[in-house]
Amino acid sequence: MERLVERLEKAVERLETVCQGPGMCGEGSSKGVAQYVQAFDALLSGPVAEYIKISKEVGGDVQKHAEMVHAGLMSERALLVVASQHQQPAENAFSALLKPISEQIQVVQNFREKNRGSKMFNHLSAVSESIPALGWVAMAPKPGPYVKEMTDAAMFYTNRILKEYKDVDKKQVDWVKAYLSIWTELQAYIKEYHTTGLTWSKTGPVATEGAKAAPAAPAGVAPPPPGPPPPPAPVSSSTDDSASRSALFAQINRGEGITSGLRHVSDDMKTHKNPALKNQGGPVRSGPKPFTAPKPACNANPSQTTSPKAPPLLELEGKKWRVENQENATNLVISDTELKQVAYVFKCTNSTLQIKGKINSITLDNCKKLGLVFDDVVGIVEIINSRDVKVQVMGKVPTISINKTDGCHVYLSQSSLDCEIVSAKSSEMNVLIPTEEGDFTEFPVPEQFKTVWNGQKLVTSVTEIAG
């Protein structure tokens, strides 16, 4: 009987130890971890876990990418725990706390750049374009809309995945739904707990660059004890304080006599009545410079950070023509083409490219001041993330897609007048139609629309602006 009692006592001790860990037993979870950290954990165990699971089933580059995304989310959780235990720090300290998230975003985006030949390039691009959403913690006062904007950036690629695999591979469709649900749920999470920015503790110590959250204790292991309290602030001499305070009150209690020691200032000593005083020697003393907040040490959007220039490239890789990193190249020509080949033009600036013959598709990505002339395309010409580009069709093309591009001129031929032009999130688009005289007539693509409810559905029409 005594041995049984001893075993029960030991079991109770073990349970009490376990329940001291955050999120382990009943009330212990609410006391050990802030409510918004628990809500973020629910996001990790829900949509994120589903995304990781399906990514593993897809395998390959998608699985590797998912592991990087998960690492970024865990870095964000660590920052949330720090914020729940500390007061908001100064800008430079906050920038240091953001650095792990910023670095992980860069890792995710670099993986896409290093695997442009991957069969899962659309998957990698969807993640790479939207992963800066992790930077919402630095996007006060509107972190939610920022996440929405980053999610929209992924839509172009997720739509391509859905179009390619809709009736072929249901697992790919599930992957898209699982990935997008992460950002949808994150927006709802932000709206509830961090509406105008990351919520910091009101009572804890001010966060510093070295502030770290204690890692979540695994099941059955008690968390480490809290660190020692900060050293007390140095105490000044109470004798000096009381002496100076007594002298101050003695001066005040003199009443009108307090001004007896002031010197009279005559009119000839006043600068507004004697301007000549301003021209006399001696530097003019100015007040202190206004305080300016230090600039963050890290960039919230790592995609804007500078990186070493990649070498220019023009080569045929399998069935893909790769034209990359060309600058000031005005005589680029691809002539030996086949119907099954595609062309991918990336990050070319102030250059001109001519593609002869018939080709399957052409994609311009992140190009600036690029001129493209081609004969025939049997699929689609896509213009993405570009600026000030000109595209001329010499033969036929069924579809031209313009997405996230500012400044695009499309010159059509007589045989391509039935071409469909699809645009989204773009501006300054013009289509030039050939005339009988051999010139072109320019027509702008509408950018502003009006949407009304007709009682059954939304009806959208182009807005005509007079002026």
* Overall 3D shape: globular
Structural class: alpha/beta
Helix tally? 9
Oligomeric state as shown: single chain
Query: Unreliable segments (pLDDT under 50, ≥5 consecutive)?
Result: 15-30, 214-239, 291-298
Structural features, described:
The chain is globular. It is built from 9 helices and 16 strands. The N and C termini lie far apart (97 Å). It is an alpha/beta fold and 467 residues long. The longest helix is centred in the first third of the chain and has 26 residues, at 60-85.
Key phrases:
single chain, 467 residues, alpha/beta, 7-stranded mixed sheet
Provide a compact summary of the structure:
This protein has helices spanning 2-19, 26-32, 35-58, 60-85, 91-114, 121-130, 143-165, 170-193, 238-252; strands at residues 313-317, 320-324, 332-334, 342-346, 349-359, 361-365, 368-377, 380-384, 387-393, 399-403, 406-411, 420-424, 427-434, 440-444, 449-453, 458-462.
